[in-house]
Amino acid sequence: MTAVLVEGGFEIVSLPQDADTIIINTCTFILPAKEESIDEIFRMAELKREGRCRHLVVTGCLPQRYGAILGEEIPEVDLFLGTGEIPRIADLVASLQRKKQPEQRSFIGKPDFLMNSSHSRLLSTPPYTAYLKIAEGCSNHCSYCVIPLVRGKFRSRQMDDILRETETLAQRGVKEIIIAAQETTLYGRDLGYTSGLSPLLREIALIEGIRWIRLLYTYPANLDDELFRTIHDVEKICNYIDIPVQHIDDGILSSMNRKGDSGLIKNVIADARKIIPGVALRTSLIVGFPGETQERFDRLLAFIRETRFDHVGVFEYSREEGTKADALPGHIPESVKELRRGIIMEEQALISREINQSLIGSLTEIVIEEKSDLPGYDYIGRSRRQAPDIDGITYVKAEEKAIGDIVECRVVSADDYDLFAEETAAGC
Ligand code: SF4
Which atom of ligand 1 lies closest to the CA of 145? Predict the structure, then answer.
């Protein structure tokens, strides 16, 4: 959207107070995301009331899902745009600025937008790293999830188009490509590829300038040995896989409408570890799903203890209207969900500390991200085992470095989530 706006003659400013038009791009995945989006809209509406900006525009998943209600509840907003309207944003904002009163306030059509390399891109991430969206939407229909409603059915981008975009990113100095989609493992199936993701990763790895490739959002039932072998064999692909399993109790997995049972999940994890020794595994879990008895929760806790993931994200089940899970019996009190989330996080902190300590003495590449305030450490960075924002960080002791440099280091110490490392004499 920012690139479309710049091409349309708009200037992007970094502070909302300096903007003539404020655009709030929203999320509607779970309750906390909706609350954050709405809080931000009200915060920006205050600026409009004070006369600090002229127009307020709300885009993305929240209007796609609640367009009509939002229009009534938040009259300060001049324009609501759904998830399919990205290419039109500059024209719609320009027409809003020309007129005092827009004739139409809501533009919410089919959620069918799919990025392609002819769309320009302004990176909001630091210049050495970029997310690469390889597909959009989801056709899985997990019973708790609203994504298929707001982002449409699963559709992959053409492989040559993704590669063109990656080449452009590499030419702009991007070294780390983070592969994203609502579900990455199905990549290409809708285009008729029998195996899409592995060939795509191998092709991306051939692009000069790309140093790390990181894979997020894989679906356990669609993971296979071919993908694991690709990750193992291709040096540029980080030995890191994000496998959101959500739960391990078969009854819960079935009422979540997840493909694959506990046996499948455990086998997939064992295969990943066998084929990619030392692979860092991340997962996401939902606690407090309807019907999660104490016994079923204990099964999840035991699974976390046994499996020893490197990184775990835990979400409290969020009741979303229009989903099948909302109509299930056996909803769990919020206080119990909170308690269960805390229990898993506490357990995981111990596991994560032990895993981090086992890394002391090992050599690792670190991408330098910013200067550090921590005494004795010059920089903060991330290893191949750490994705931005969701995993821990690594404090680095090193000679003068530029942001975005990738440096060979030795891990010297560790805490629950973070590592501490020193540049090796040879550098990188
Ligand atoms: S696979 Fe992910 S995005 Fe798709 S329905 Fe399930 S939770 Fe939602």
Answer: 8
